[in-house]
Amino acid sequence: AYGGSALLIIGIIGIYFFSGATTMNILELQALHNIPESVQKVLFPFVFIGFGVLGALFPFHTWSPDGHASAPTAVSMLHAGVLMKLGGYGCFRIAIVLLPEAAHQLSWIFIILTTISVVYGAFSACVQTDLKYINAYSSVSHCGLVLFALLMMTQTSCTGAILQMLSHGLMTALFFALIGMIYGRTHTRDIRQLGGLMKIMPFLSVGYVIAGLANLGLPGFSGFVAEMTIFVGSFQNNDVFHRTATIIACTAIVITAVYILRVVGKILFGKVADPHYEQLTDATWDERFAVGCLIFCVAGLGLAPLWASNIISDTLGPIIDHINNVTAIASL
Questions:
Q1: Which of 90, 192, 251, 267 is most buried, by the most CB atoms less than 10 A from its CB?
Q2: How many CB atoms lie within 10 A of CB 67?
Q3: Which one, of 302, 320, 226, lies nearest residue 30 by Cα?
Q4: pLDDT of 15-64, one tens digit each?
């Protein structure tokens, strides 16, 4: 993470110095647009990787699962639900928008890395036994999908990326909240030591099932809306490379279903793993309220997504047009 900050500082200072601006205002830097393409190619990797570290870009993601697992529940919720989204925002708003020619020229490198992030994160979640590590590697996969969609640079894919930021922030906060509540009662996050929780704490178990179904992209939840928008927008690029990368990234849907259904079956159903668990209590009223609010938001975005996607798409339109116009002029 410190290395990412160092790269980011170099990239931002480079943008300021070579743009000839007297301000750090993003809109003014975007309007000036006088950084030579050769300089952009040097600065783009610094800025994109610097922000990409925060967005768990492969192979710079290794800090994220350990950070999630060792942090308290509230910090994990804030970290995955809010702070990791800053990585996607910075990659788009600063790296891609301020350095558009380099973004077009070098995007293939980072598309490969983000495709690996999406699939690798899902596969890694399949072999974890700690509930927090499972959700942490799931976040690597889903945040990789955000960066993947932004690099496709179509209006639809970028709309999907921002929807995914919203969706993942809600889903992962719900997951970490439920994991914290389960851990507070059972004092373990090891799925090998859990079982039969649906009978003991039905409210928390049903909440976990809903969070899992949203995470694997079940229609009616926010995850489906975001992922479908990303894949449709990414496939709008009509060259073989972009479409092949999109198809590979789509396989993460199946892998996600594997680890979510595996965990749900292991910890919620079957025989109670420890007789002492039968004395445990279900969620208190304040826990039910918090979980209910998050479920309402996840389902609300999934069932009525147009109000959000229209706002996002309308805002992105001028930015995508600017990127396309600049790169079109540069290619002449």
A1: 267
A2: 18
A3: 320
A4: 888 777 777 877 777 777 777 778 888 888 888 888 888 887 888 777 77
CA 191, distance to chain mean position in Å, is: 24
Number of residues that this document lists for the chain: 332
Check whether the bond before 59 is cis (ω within 30° of 0).
yes
Neighbours of 285 (CB within 10 A): 7
The three-class DSSP label of residue 190 is strand
Q: Which residues pair with 190 in a beta bridge?
A: 130
Q: How many whole angstroms from its chain centre is CA 247? A: 18
The answer to whether 115 and 148 have CB atoms below 8 angstroms apart is yes
In angstroms, rounded to a whole number, what is the distance separating the alpha carbons of residues 176 and 264? 15
Six-digit token string for 58 = 């492969």
Structure token pair of residue 240: 């073989």
Distance CA 166, CA 32 (A): 31
Assigned token pair, 181: 């509540």
User: Residue 21 corresponds to which amino acid?
Assistant: A
* 8 HSE (CA, 13 A, CB side): 16
Tell me the per-residue pLDDT of 105-161, one tens digit each, with 9 for 90 and over: 888 888 999 999 899 988 988 888 888 888 888 888 888 899 999 998 888 889 999
How far apart are the C-alpha atoms of 205 and 266, rounded to whole Å?
Answer: 12
First to last CA, the chain: 39
